[in-house]
Amino acid sequence: MRRLLTLCPTILLACLAGFAAETPAEPRVLKDIPYRAGDDLTAYESERCKLDLALPAKSAQPFATYVWFYGGGLKNGSKTLASEHCAEIAASFAREGIAVVVPDYRLSPRAKYPEYVDDAAAAFAWTVRHIGAHGGDPRKVFIGGHSAGGYLALMVGFDPSRLKPYGLGLKDVAGIAQVSGQVFTHYTIREERGQGRYSVTSDEAAPAFHVQKTLPPILTLYSDHDMTGRAEENQFLIAMLKGAGHVETTSLKVTDTDHGSIGHNLRFPEDPGHKAIVQFIRQQAAAR
To answer: What one-character-per-residue DSSP string does 23-90 give?
Structure first.
């Protein structure tokens, strides 16, 4: 005779509750929030200078926030572009209890340097000023991005002149977690100046130009199969930071990736880069 295995209602409810506890609640997402204001905005600024905000569903204390800039060579990209996986990346960190801000920014050639860098600084400043109203801690705002987005994050977090117009300084950057960012003057900026893609330049438009030991904590990720010269640029940055006496420099070479997948894979919680960024943000947030 076959016997049916039955569970008493109390045990069944406990099992269901345990399963529910292991399933992260979906984040709350606010879309198309303007981060620039004023009557003097151009139509292009009004169009592009908006951000999406992914908030943790539950948080017992004011949460940390990660401002994330997508890549695209400073020429392409959108927070809604499926190939950039911005919404998925934001949701994956929000499920870990970290809010994510994903801004759009003006693009070359319609915009010229330093306009897209100024947009990145404005988006960071908006976050510091407004995240408290959404449950976040303004002292724990981190910045990062992939490729051109990594470049923007480094410029905002390295060059104090970028945040000065907003009454902020590098001390307001809780940390930088960037992925395969350009370390020298971005090749699109060189193109705007009439230079070649591989005419290596390091001036005020280069993160490397601003290296000093007092910069915010930095995590650098790069790929074992990155684009030409990019892994070496990031290794150079790490070496120069350590040489300057910067003691909170950490890095990770993510294997079995290329220049695109190292950023796009961040949407997966089991991805080594995802785990490294979560650990970095949690450690640095606890120290603030």
So the answer is: SPPPPEEEEEEE---STT--HHHHHH-EEEEEE-S--SSPEEEEEEE--STTTS--TT-GGGTHHHHH
- How many whole angstroms separate alpha carbon 131 and alpha carbon 230? 33
DSSP codes joined into one string, 199-212: ----STTSGGGG--
| Residue pLDDT, tens place only, 210-262 | 999 999 999 999 999 999 999 999 999 999 999 999 999 999 999 999 999 99
Q: Report which DSSP code applies to 217.
A: P
Specify the pTM: 0.91
DSSP string, 171-185: GG--EEEEES---SS
* Kind plus residue range of the DSSP H or E element containing 225: strand 218-225
Domain boundaries, the chain: 27-287
Q: What number of residues does the chain have?
A: 288
Q: Which helix (H) or strand (E) holds 224?
A: strand 218-225
CATH architecture of residue range(s) 27-287? 3-Layer(aba) Sandwich (3.40)
